[in-house]
Each structure stands twice: as C-alpha cells, then as structure tokens.
Specification:
single chain, 367 residues, alpha+beta, 6 helices
C-alpha cells in the first residue's frame, strides 16, 4: 500500500517559503501499487479536495473544466507521494472527460443539499399537524389521580385493533415526528399538553378506540377503550404516581438527545414533551456523521444563550465528539462547539487521522 497526499495552499503571500510552510498535507488517499496514477486517482483527488476545502469554486471548476489553481488563491496545486513528497501528478479537473466531470458533480449534489440546506430547516423531526380529514373526534382528558388536575402525557392509540397515528390533534396536543434520514424511518408520537381536553381526528367509519397515557417512569400507565357513536367519543384517563424521586433529591435527565434545535420558539414544545415523558432535563447534542454525512442536530446557540427552561425543566445544548478508534464522548454544557466534530474518517468532510486524542478534546471543552 502507498499513500497519496493532497496538499492545498492557504491564502498567503507570494513568498515561496511562506507558501511552502502554509501547505497543508491534511487529506490522505490510500491506493494499491497495481493502480497506476492516472484518471482514477484524479477522480479521488477531486472528491477528497472538495471535502477538504469545502469551497464552492471547486464545483464550478469541475463543471467548467478550468484549472483549480487559476480560480482562487485557495486552489489545489499538486498531489504528492508521501514517501518523498515529490510531485506525482499536477491535478486539473479539465484533465477529466466532460461527462465524467458532470457525473462527479452530480454525485456531490445530495451531500451538498444536506450539508447546506438544513441550517434553517430541521432534518431530524417535524411538528407538522395536518388538516383534519373527517368530523370524527376522540376527546381525551388526562388527569392526576390524586388532584384531578390536567397532566401532560404521551398518548398511544389502537383503532379497531390496529396501531393508529392521527394526522391532526387540536391545540391541546403536540404531534411530533422523529425522522432518520439514512434509514428512511419515521416515528410519530402524540402528546397531551396538560392544558385541557385533547381532541384527536379519527378516520370516517372508526368504531372502537383504545388510548394509553404514560408519563415517564414514576406514573403507572392508564388505558381506556371507548366506542365511537355519532362521530365522536370521550375518554378520561387518570394517572397514578407511584414514586417521587425528586423529593429524595433525584431528577430524571436524558443526556443524549440528537434533534435539530434551530428556533428558540420551539423550546416551549420541547419542554412540554419532556414534562410528558417525566424528564427534568435534556442535553441536545450536535454531531457529525451517522444519520446524515454532515453536521446535524444543530443548536441555535451554545452556553447560556442556548439554554432553555420553564422553572421545572431545562434544555442544555452540547456536543457528541466521535472518533472511530477512541470512541464517542458527550460534552455537556459546552460554551462552543469543539472542532472538527469527529475524526477517524467519521462524517463528511472526513478527517482521516484519529487525532486529536480525546484527552485533548476534553481539556479544551473544560477550558
């Protein structure tokens, strides 16, 4: 095996010595001896250079067939062989056939859309509540067994013997869908806010509905069944608390949550859902790779500016820093993100080396 090093210049002055010192040998491409240095490696160079520079001009150069070095002062100049750092092949995208250039560019577009398109729109979840599709309604009241006060809770439904997910709930509820981009899976949960009777849209022809309400681990779940008559039915569920660990000085916290939190206005919903799940705190952590190649589970801010609370519950932004050899660590309550998010080839753009050590990352987080 041999290693091919792709070097690119920073924006520095014209002095050759300064340029040489500024050359970053930061992206390694591994190839076998039986593969000659030629178009195959030029393709790999293009893909890796694009990942390393994250510059849109590479896209334009590949499309137009111009030398990268003439398009920007941050252009990629040459590939080096690691053994003696001698030039192997000057790299210009115009050396590739036009059709191949277009195919390479097209292959990068989905990743670009994911990386650049969700800074303002969440990709991990949806709070969408569709229009009511019928006039059939379930009116569900959930209360505390000891006080009869309304309680926030999570609701599961069985309609005529089948698991049922409603398309619409009224303002007393939240319809939340978790989205996993890589697998294409989704999961929708329904919550009662604890502010009044929850109305749930049922399909026309519904006959029997069973509802189960839960509120974390300190309440016993409650289940009830009702028959739909004249397009509506009513259920009342009472949740009984069997434990109160907060009185003994304990609180329930989920310290590993991966959801985009881009709009502070959504925090009220997150806090209500936490209450319904019996949580006093949650740590929302940004990361890179896994569900999607780039950075996801973004937070609108970090440190004190990124926190949210309602008097009883709190949300704290943080980061999951990952390395393919050293493992994953959770950085709770950090004031800012620790770059480069992940190492050891995880995520996109990939940092191939298993560096820095996690000790250094933790020290930087504490500082």
């Amino acid at each position: 095996m041999r290693q091919l090093i792709v070097a690119h210049w920073l924006e520095v002055g014209p002095d050759p010595a300064e340029r040489e010192q500024a050359a970053l040998v930061e992206s390694r491409l591994v190839y076998t001896d039986r593969l000659a240095v030629g178009p195959y490696h030029q393709i790999l160079c293009l893909l890796r250079i694009f990942a390393a520079t994250k510059s849109f001009f590479v896209f334009l150069c590949a499309l137009r067939g111009k030398p990268i070095s003439s398009a920007s002062s941050r252009g990629v100049d040459v590939c080096f062989e690691r053994s003696n750092h001698q030039p192997i092949v000057p790299f210009y995208p115009r050396a590739l056939p036009p059709l191949l250039r277009l195919l390479i560019v097209a292959s990068l577009l989905p990743t670009l859309a994911v990386l650049n398109g969700h800074e303002h729109e969440p990709i991990t979840h949806s709070f969408d509540n569709e229009q009511a599709s019928s006039s059939v309604r379930l009116h569900l009241a959930i209360t505390d067994d000891s006080t009869d006060a309304p309680l926030a809770a999570r609701v599961s439904l069985i309609l005529d013997g089948e698991v049922f997910v409603p398309n619409w709930v009224n303002e007393q509820g939240i319809r939340f869908t978790s989205i996993h981009k890589r697998s294409g899976n989704t999961f929708t949960a329904v919550y009662a806010r604890g502010t009044g009777t929850l109305a749930i849209d049922l399909p026309a022809g519904a006959k029997q509905i069973t509802a189960t309400a839960t509120r974390g681990f300190e309440y016993i779940p409650a289940t009830g069944t009702a028959i739909v008559v004249s397009n509506e039915t009513t259920l009342e569920l009472s949740l009984k608390r069997w434990a109160n660990l907060e009185k003994d000085g304990w609180i329930a916290v989920d310290e590993h949550v991966h959801f985009d939190r881009l709009d502070p206005a959504d925090d009220a919903r997150w806090l209500t859902m936490m209450e319904a799940d019996g949580l006093s705190g949650a740590h929302f952590m940004v990361l890179k790779g896994g569900m999607t190649p780039g950075v996801w589970a973004r937070q609108f801010d970090y440190g004190a500016a990124g926190r949210a609370k309602d008097g009883k519950r709190s949300i704290t932004p943080g980061q999951e820093y990952r390395d393919s050899a050293q493992g994953h660590i959770n950085l709770l309550g950090i004031g800012k993100v620790i770059e480069p998010y992940s190492t050891g080839g995880m995520g996109w753009p990939a940092i191939v080396e298993n560096y820095p050590p996690l000790h250094n990352v933790l020290a930087k987080a504490r500082s």
